[in-house]
Each structure stands twice: as structure tokens, then as C-alpha cells.
Amino acid sequence: MGEDMAKGEVRQLMVGGDEWKVSENPKQDREWAQRYPEKGEFVGGLISEVVTPGFDWRDHEYMTIALLKKLFGSDQRKRITQLTGQLLNISQMTSSSSTNSGPYGPVFQLIPGVQSYDWGKTIAQGSLVAQFAEATSESHFKREDGKPYAELWMGTHSTLPSSIIPPNGEGKNEYPTLASYLQEYPNLVGDKVQERFAGSTSWKGELPFLFKILSIGKALSIQAHPDKELARRLHAEKPKMYKDNNHKPEMAIALTKFEGFCGFRPLKQIAHFIEIVPEFQSVINPNDQLKSSLAKVKSASSIDATETKKLLREIFSALMNAEESLVKKSVSKIAQRYESAINSGKASTLEVEEDLAKLVITLNAQFPEDVGVLCSFVLNVVHLEPGQAAFLKANEPHAYIDGEIVECMAASDNVVRAGLTPKARDVQVLVDMLTYEDSPSDEKRMQPQPFKPDQSSANAHKYTQSSNDAPSLLYDPPIDEFSVVRTVLQANESETHRAISGPSILIVTAGKGSLSAQISSSHTFSVDTPGKVYFVGANTPITLQSTGSDPLITYRAFVEA
User: What is the pLDDT of residues 139-190, one digit of tens each?
Assistant: First the structure.
């Protein structure tokens, strides 16, 4: 029992001026005890002879703080300090990761959670969420045919918190939550990160980000996520609907080909669609003043930002608040018209490109006669190839349509919906909250930069060449809560990531290899199955090694302060 509780728990006991300590390396512990037996004798003897007669400290190979607290009550511990005339000083050793990482060390495996939503992918559709969930046997995940698996959650969010797999079989099916463990061992997060994101409330081990894998089989709702101020208000007014008081900017990185709505189309495009698509025009039903304004937009070389916001809001509000019967009739009519033209080989006669017409048909098949179908003429359609990314600010409309992605966001689960969903809609809140900024679809894509490795990395030379050849790329959105590193290592290639000053979560999405913390050999993990997830403590350099014939691909979400 003593050994299990001791591993990784590095403490020093100061009693009567003497020190007795344990490290997370059992071999070092034994060597230290042999070299200075009198100190162990002093503490152990004090406990057994004065406080608890009959207790033999030598029955426990290691004396840890956790064991001390478990074996002796507070009154007995006070008695120890009284007898020695000194405070029993239980303090964390300083400096390296090996001395402040708790009993599981600076790196350990996590059990992610799985969410099943209607828009997810089934086993037959090749859901990566389901495949990745199976990689962790401790999750006891059992696949069900026909069930859509939508999201794999990695983090500390209370809705679906990750748990820890104790190394070396410790714990015997007891899996502490990551949040509770970080609260007990905050050095894994780092003082600066904790101070920056804990706020004025008592910190309970929460990470400022939530990391996910999404398998998208059909469109998600037309939605936006509130900024901090609105999140606090919505949470106060409707706590059951909006469970968090935090904002939720998010970033999507494609694992497969991806399609989604992201932000408003340029106003000129929207004005053009109102003019040429009769069903869309009938729903917007522009009055003479709006018609005049849109005519000026089409001919203008530039448009004032304030005027753009005003017109976008007017158009979007008209769409979202249109009479339901008119929406149903118009959506049904346009979908039938487009489908008839495509099936008869006359797509070229349509007023819009064939891809857009097919999207309207697809969305109507998924959500018949829904107002969200007409958002195809208002919102940008963004396509991403694997490795490409898009960032979505708070208060920006979007909807994922198809594909599989890595997603990272500020730790919140607030969603304001208004279309393409069977869930509760909050149309007026959505209309009021949006920023109404327009831009071309290609401006929504992020440009990752090389993430330079530790100087000792075996592949450091690759970062002196073209950035396109960099094995690790950094996706760094303009917010504080998170960044993501994508690493692609070819067969037998290795890379040592620099020590990051905050916590991180890493998932393997392809290939085989190993993950090692640069502390001791006891912190090496065999990465034999895509889907395995690991937590890496603050200030811990790690080495990734590819051992399979296919590239090893990992994604690592982190925060620094």
C-alpha cells in the first residue's frame, strides 16, 4: 500500500530540524534511505513510539504525505509537532517537473468522454469519434450500430469531465477526474495559468479550454456562442439553457474534408442572391428602402462598415423572423426546383452554382422546410482540407455541415441556436448578439506557423528550411485560452517539444509510436492506437517517436500565460 501511494508524491517532512523525503523514483528513494537511515528512523520512530504504539513504520517502504494523512488523524499529527516543538512543514519540493507533478508523474493517460447527438456519424459511416473512443479500454465504450457518435470530449468541463488512468495499474479501476487531480496538484497547471484564469472564485482544477473531436454526419444548428458579457447575462437569466457564464470562441482543424457555414458572406453576394433567387427574395421581402440600399451596395466600390452591419442585421432578422408558412413553402419550392434541374442535367440553367444548389437540397433533406436552409445564401460556405483550420469568434454565426475535425474552444458549452435543429431556438438573442461582420470565405482560414521544437530535438534541422516542411505547426488564434500544435512525424522520426509553461492535452489521430516525458524512463507511453489521449503537465518537455510505417499524427491543445 505504501509504495502505491508514494509514487510521484514528492514531499519533505521537517520534524525537529530533520528531513525525510520521498521522490517519484523508487530506486532513488531506496538509495537515499540507505544513505541516511537515521532520518527515516527518527521520523518513523517518533510516529511508532510516541503517537501510535505498535505501528512499525518499516512495514511501509515509503512514507508519503498521503499515507501519513491516511494513517494518522489530525490530532495525532498535531501531537507530532507538539512533541518536537516544531511545525510539521509539509511543503512541495521546487524546480523540475519531476518534483511537483503528483503521484502519477508529469504525463498520464486520460479517459475521454463520448457524446451522442443526432448530427453525429454512425459506425457504418466511419465515425472517428467511435474509433477513437475504442482506443481507451478503460472507458468501457461499447459501439452500437445505428447510433450516431458526435463528440469526443477531453478536458475538465463539468458536463463530461475526463478521468485519469493511474499508471502501472495503480488505483484498481479507480479513475479520479482530471479536475480533482489538478486541484490537488496545481503545479501541473502552473501558477501563472491558474492565476490568470481562476478569477475571483475558488479554483477547482478547471482548464481554460475544452478539446474535442467531432464526427459530423449532418449539419449542426445555425448558431453562435456568446461573448463573456452576454454569457454572464444569459446564464443568470436562463441557467438551464445556458449553463456557463463564459464565452466560447472556437477553432476547427480538419481531419478529413470539411464543409461548414462560417460568418456572413460579403454583403454584395447576399444582395445579389436576394435579387436573383426568387424564393429567397420572397422570404426576405425587402421594402423599397432596403431595395434601394442593396442596389447602392451592388454598384459601390466600397461600403461603410456601419452601413454594412445595419443592412446585414436587417436581412438576417427578416430571414429568421419570417412567417413560418412562407418559409416552409419557399424552402420546399426551391429545393424541388434545384433537384429537378440537377436530375435532368440542367444545373447550368440555375441562377446559382451547382454546389450551392446541392447544398440547399442536402440541408432540406436533413431538415425539411427549415429556415436554416436559406442561410446558404447568407453565410459563407467554407471548405477545409486535412490540416486546414478556421477560427470562429464569439458572436459569429456558423454551422458545421460535414466532415471530421479537431475542435478547441474556451471552456464553455453555451450555444444560441436559430435553425437546422430540433432543439430550443433563441432567435431574438441570436439576432441581437451577432457582430454582423462580412468577409470572403477564404479569409476564415487560419495560417499556422512552425512550432519550433526543443534545441535537443533530433529533427531540429527541419525548422531551418521552408515552413511548409515543419513537422509541427502552431494554430494560434487571437485569444488567450488555447492554442493547438499539429505534429506529423514520418517513420522512425522523432521530435522533442519544448517545455510549455502551461498544461496541455494531446491526442493521437494516426500512426504508432511513443510519447516520453523528458524526466525519467518511467514516463514513456506506447502509442499503439489512434485515439489515445494524454495530459502533459506544465514545464514538461516531451518526445514523440514514430515507429510505424505510416506517419504519426498528434494534436496538442495547450495554454500559456
Answer: 999 999 999 999 999 999 999 999 999 987 665 677 999 999 999 999 999 9
Task: Indicate the pairing of strand 258-264 with strand 151-154.
Answer: unpaired
* 307 domain-assigned: yes
CATH of the domain at 301: 1.10.441.10
Collapsed DSSP state (helix, strand, coil) of residue 106: coil
Q: Which domain holds residue 81?
A: 2-93
Is residue 80 classed as helix, strand or coil in its secondary structure? helix
- DSSP helix/strand/coil, 362: helix
Strand partners, 253: 389, 406
Per residue, what are the HEC states of 446-515?
CCCEECCCCCCCCCHHHHHCCHHHCCEEEECCCCCCCEEEEEEECCCCEEEECCCCCCEEEEEEECCEEE
Q: What is the dihedral of CA 123, 125, 130, 135, to 10 degrees?
A: 90
What is the C-alpha to C-alpha distance for residues 175 and 171, in angstroms, rounded to an integer? 7
CA distance 29 to 10: 10
* Residue 358 falls inside a structural domain: yes
State the total domains in the chain.
3
Q: What is the largest CA-CA distance in the chain?
A: 96
Helix pair 288-299, 305-320: axis angle to 10 deg = 130
The C-alpha cell that represents 384 in the structure block? 477545409
Give the pLDDT confidence of 71-128 residue by residue, as tens digits: 555 565 555 444 433 323 322 222 333 345 788 889 999 999 999 999 999 999 999 9
Q: Where are the alpha helices (DSSP H) in 37-73?
A: 37-46, 65-71
Instruction: Look up 265 and say whether it is catalytic.
Output: no
Cα 449 to its chain centre, rounded Å, is 20
Q: Which of 376, 403, 423 is the last residue of a domain?
A: 376
Report which residue type is found at 341. A
CB atoms within 10 A of CB 276: 13
d(CA 310, CA 434): 11
Q: Which three cell numbers stand for residue 509?
A: 489521430
- Least Cα distance to 20 among 2, 40, 34 occurs for 40
> Which residue among the candidates 77, 143, 233, 417 is catalytic per the annotation?
417
Give the alpha-carbon dihedral of 420, 424, 428, 429, to 10 degrees: -100
Residues 551 and 454 in one domain: yes
Cα separation, 431 vs 128, in Å, equals 34
